[in-house]
Amino acid sequence: MSRQGGALNPAKKVASTRTEPGGDELWQALARAVMWEAAVCGMPTPEIVRRLEQVVEGASVERLRQAILTCEASGLAGKVEADGERWDALLGDAERRAFGVHFTPAHVADRLVSLLDDGEESAVAEAGLVVDPACGAGALLLAAGRRWPGRALVGVEREEGLALACGLRLLAAQRRGEAGDVRVIVGDGLDRLEDDTEGRAGVVVMNPPYVPEKGNGAFLAGVLADHPRFECVRGARVDLLYYFLARSVELLSDGGQAAWLTPPHWLGADGADALRAYLLDEGAMERFAWLKAGDVFDAAPGTEVLLASFRKGSARREAMWGGSVSAGEFRWTAVAPGSLGSGRWRPRVDQGGLDWGRRVRREGRPLGELVRDFQGVVSGADRVTRRHVAHFGGVEEGWEVGTPIFLSEEAEPPAGWAVLGGYVRPLLRSGRLEASRVYRGEEVHGWMLYLCEELPQEHLEAVEEVLGPYRPILERRREVVQGKMPWYRLHWPRDRAAMAAPKLVVPRRAPRPCFALDLSGAIVSSDCTILLAPPDIEDAEGYLCALMKALNSAHTERYLGTFGKRKGALLEFYSSPLRELPVRFEWP
């Protein structure tokens, strides 16, 4: 199914590689689309359904027939608004959020397909077969049909209603002369096909499903158990799209090309090192292009999406990267050879930037050798949210959205927390940190109930008074359910001594370096990374103050902007890029 993750909500409720059937609205729209196609073709609606049944393998059309009867009885006829980017809305907000569904707009599909060449020596020109193993409503297959009229088009889609929608649209493209043979298979896009499609596709186009590793470990382990051949691309962390990228390579003939629409993180993610090595072994990357996510997917403002193409076997074109200059064009620049090596890929970094990076790595020391790092406190429930109200009986409980549970950003602690006064601690948050500032306790950004351990019996009555009203929320946290911690404790409180020690604090995402020194012993929230001096440093305050000056430099900003990780315009100050950051730093 064509989806985009990056900044979208992942599939939290997936238990297998099959989705639940689409809602009634989707089937009603599909029924109306069939009725419209029948009117356009001048043939009975049952004949369109019969043809659709022949094209979509593994689908039952009984629900479609019932939907058509309902539409006819209700007088619902006429053209339905069913462009590719509209079908996701028909699934309903809850289902789209649950499964990360977001479809490819037609203009983006055309731009993705434009990355592929169609020269005389290309497998694109020689082979007619175009495959999309996650086809959704067929936007990418239709774009391929517009570019190469008459090609055979094959899609795989696990949601039956969407597979039928794709089949109907491909039949219409065939009628217009934009497609040759068309075929849609209801099933898991990672499954091997039972015919000779395997390994003979000239083109694979795909916007793969995005289910990230975080929070979905059991699901992804199940996917790998079902498809053990993809062990070759599994790193320390793995997203579902890694398996789909490997699957697209598997489908290609020698010299065939794949075009992918994905989040860009896999170019540099630590867990994608095995995937990148696999791609280099199987062929070569040829094109990289970036679009602002807000121009593609309304749900992901402020980030980027990646359009990339790959050729199996020996590459025939120089690798290029492009930035968008107009609605239909990219400005192309050659990729520096050293940017696509065994480590992270940096296709937008020129040769001068690569040489500079090598030099500063020789001259500096990795920050990971100079400090210890960890994330701030994770409560598991800072405050009451709309989701809490909707899913935990909040209306009956009288909860109000925004009410503090563990965290308050008011000038003074909530009055109701007074009975737990010994556990109320000042808090620093990322959005209010000032670069190079030393915090000594004169300013705090909020307050936290720092419940970091199992409490003595005499304090539990006060805990029940303050947190008891929100116990249904707190008891559903994973480590409470697993019996690893009491219901009232912070999810990940971190080390008490580390919080009390002098420490550098930096937002986990910021447009530029914003390291501050905390000497107040404040609690630091989860949106920050914390750096501590090594245990053998006697003057930790002086050491960190000198290091703060080096870290807030233009050198740090340039290095992380070039070789670090980004979220749109924001630099990421997570542990992994920080540990690798080379710092020119000497301490007496």
Descriptive notes:
The chain is an alpha/beta fold and 588 residues long. Helices cover 34% and strands 19% of the residues. The chain has 22 helices and 24 strands. The strands form 5 sheets. Strands 1-4-3-2-5-6-8-7-9-10 form a 10-stranded mixed beta sheet. Strands 12-21-17-19-15 form a 5-stranded mixed beta sheet. α8 links the parallel β2 and β3. α1 runs parallel beside α9, α8 (139-147) packs parallel to α9 and α11 packs parallel to α12. The longest helix has 18 residues, at 24-41. It is globular, with a radius of gyration of 27 Å. The termini are far apart. Mean pLDDT is 87; it is low at 1-21 and 81-85.
What brief labels describe this structure?
single chain, 588 residues, 24 strands
Write the layout of secondary structure elements.
Blueprint: H1 24-41, H2 45-55, E1 56-57, H3 62-74, H4 84-90, H5 93-99, H6 106-113, H7 123-126, E2 129-132, H8 139-147, E3 152-157, H9 160-175, E4 182-186, E5 201-206, H10 217-226, H11 240-251, E6 252-262, H12 273-282, E7 283-292, E8 304-312, E9 320-326, E10 329-334, H13 351-363, E11 365-366, E12 372-375, H14 386-391, H15 394-397, E13 407-408, E14 424-428, E15 438-439, E16 446-449, H16 460-467, H17 471-474, H18 478-481, H19 496-500, E17 503-507, E18 509-510, E19 516-518, E20 523-524, E21 528-532, H20 540-551, H21 554-563, E22 566-567, E23 570-572, H22 575-580, E24 582-583
Parallel strand pairs: 1-4, 2-3, 2-5, 3-4, 5-6, 7-9, 14-20, 15-19
Antiparallel strand pairs: 6-8, 7-8, 9-10, 11-24, 12-21, 13-16, 14-16, 17-19, 17-21, 18-23, 22-23
